[in-house]
């Protein structure tokens, strides 16, 4: 049942190996993620190899006997397949020993942030809006977000970092919410946790004075006779911005 060659190789690579076979699941032959002998023993119970499976108390045996086969299969996949929900055994162990296996990130949440990047490339939006999403991704990565499970905490850190620039955070919150709604659904816990983070209060918009409007209209008239002035709010800085509109058509700005 155990491969001592693999175990020795695991020690050399800095982490002890798991090599167990479970009926209905197959062989789990992966790095445990720990070099601590006591933690490795608690995970796989190598000293209990001759004890009946039903009497063993190591994590893998207990997961199997309690029908948590889905968790064992995620360990079987391994951390190199996080996009499919794979995990290291030691990651599961940290939840299991505290009795919080229900808090283990779902397979979708374990996916890397690259999934967000792929979505952004194919999302149906303007080029300007897409650039805004890319800036959001860069900001989240700078806040330590590596997987979808990190998004809520990463958003909180980003909120603190740009607390003096509310528009940046509110846009990022909108981008992340749209992505999670599209990919995981609005009922998913990740979506709800992000939406529970309050928006930052934006400054009241400052309107252009009548004199500023007249001066701007006169300037535009000199530049392009017959063009009528329209004033639309610019969401990037809280100041209303004047736009020249040929033929008097109204302008609608889209918040990227």
Write up this protein.
The chain is mainly alpha-helical. The protein has three domains: 4-103, no CATH class; 114-195, no CATH class; 210-246, no CATH class. 45% of the residues lie in helices and 11% in strands. The chain has helices at residues 4-12, 37-44, 59-65, 69-77, 89-96, 114-122, 127-142, 151-161, 166-183, 189-195, 210-223, and strands at 17-22, 26-31, 227-234, 239-246. The strands form two sheets. Strands 1-2 form a two-stranded antiparallel sheet. Strands 3-4 form a two-stranded antiparallel ribbon. A hairpin with a 4-residue loop joins β3 (227-234) and β4. α8 runs antiparallel to α9 (166-183). The radius of gyration is 27 Å and the shape is elongated. The N and C termini lie far apart (57 Å). Residues 1-12 and 234-256 have low confidence and may be disordered.
Question: How is this structure best summarized?
Answer:
The protein has 256 residues and is mainly alpha-helical.
Find the structural class using helix and strand composition: mainly alpha
| Count of all domains | 3
What spatial order of strands do you see in the largest sheet? 1-2
What number is the mean pLDDT? 81
What is the global morphology? Answer: elongated
Task: Give the radius of gyration.
Answer: 27 Å
- Spans of at least 5 consecutive residues whose pLDDT stays below 50 are 1-12, 234-256
User: Percent of residues in beta strands?
Assistant: 5-15%
Between the first and last Cα atoms, what is the distance in angstroms? 57 Å
